[in-house]
Design goal:
globular; two-stranded antiparallel sheet; about 0% helix; about 25% strand; single chain
């Protein structure tokens, strides 16, 4: 079926998709129902940035903290 679309302006070149935050686990960064835009082509690792991690289940957004053991 067709997926919903979201309009955005002034995004740089890339391969973009949007995710809607469904719960309050990220409320300090993105409140519930907010929309996160992700550039699939941007592979740079940036300090204090958020990263989308996807597997067979729903995607997740994480913000790793420097110096924390994983």
């Amino acid at each position: 079926g067709d997926l919903p679309t979201v309009s955005a302006v002034d995004l740089p070149d890339g391969e973009w998709f949007a995710l809607r935050v469904e719960n309050n686990s990220m409320n300090k960064i993105s409140p519930p129902e907010s929309i996160i835009f992700v550039n699939r082509r941007d592979r740079r690792l940036v300090a204090n940035a958020c990263y989308v991690i996807a597997d067979e289940s729903a995607p997740t957004v994480r913000q790793p903290h420097a110096g924390r053991a994983r």
